[in-house]
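Lab notebook page, bench 4
Experiment: in silico fold of construct C2
Operator: M.H.
Input chain length: 381 residues
Purpose: comparison with the prior construct
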Amino acid sequence: MTSSDSAKASLSPDGEAAWLRLKLHLEWLDCFDLIFLFSAHPAAVRALRERLAAIHRARVTGLEVPAPQSVAELLNELLPRLLHPPSYQQALNAPLWLDLTRPPAGVPAADWQQARLNFLARLNERREPLRRALSRPMVLVLPLAEKAQIKALAPDLWAIRRFSVETGNWLAAERAAPPPTHPPEEPAPFPLTDADQALVDEWQRLWSKRELDRGALLAAERAFNALRRSGRVKGAAEVALWMAEIARRRLGNKKRDSEALRDLSVSLDNVGKTDQALGEWEAARAAFAESLDIRRRILARVGETPEALRDLSVSLNNVGNTDQALGEWESARAALREGLEIAERLAAALPDQVDYKDLPDWFRRRLAELADAPGALSGRG
């Protein structure tokens, strides 16, 4: 089966329900999240991976699928790359898909199994550094037969997972089972941790008191992130809209206050993120475009500081994403070309900063991918 066939493959009702739950879970995340996928059915795994890859090809974020070719590469090279990713990878929204179920060519199955377990044990020991370093979801694909062993071997990883699924032989079952008469329901959000609930409670306390100072804005930002982590899109959207309203009030007539301007731009970015998660791309584009305009004003006010330039590049990336989703190919390319120009200026001004050094390559890759995206030819002059 080719990759194209896998992306189009029909799944059984159980498979479609699992796919929808996985898709909705990942679409809302732009932070670290650990997902376990256990399977004894490579075709089902391939179908899920290619569906996910097709989504991210269209968004030009690119699903990353590392494929270690030896035991040494898995144990000695992959983990350091996960713990110390370059800045352009930290900016990715696409998940990292790591399938460790089958050995590479030439590696005995027994050796690969032992290497896989050693890798998970090391990953378990570095749980907290991994959470800090990897700012996007990670899907670990592992053998179903080893599920109990892995839970015992890597209890810290198991404790921080937010999603896990066991695949069935969904492609084969599809031929015998009728399609579902109703689409699966959207999955319920994950429970808030005690710490996250405390952040939400604090924001609600300040909201009830009609607090309008910057401390209330920062508390709202923390509550927004807590709700986003648990998949509460509508709750996060409510907080984001409140943030934008309060940031506008605080700005008032202080149109040249750089801190107040930046607070409004951050609030608008949060509004855009929730609009994206709800499929409201036009609204997301409007929020991101206003944030971009504000960041241009900040740049004119404070000059070409690294923070101001980096913020502007983030806004250009956000606008480029939404333009692409709306089919505005030339506008998307224009935003990314400007982002590349800014990234090159940052890299030239701060050649010793590894994060800024890698940033131009990130924009170049995005532009190269966008040139090949479906419909991109229509925007070329």
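Observations: DSSP finds 18 helices and four strands in the chain. The beta strands are 33-39, 96-99, 137-143, 161-166.
Next step: discuss at group meeting.
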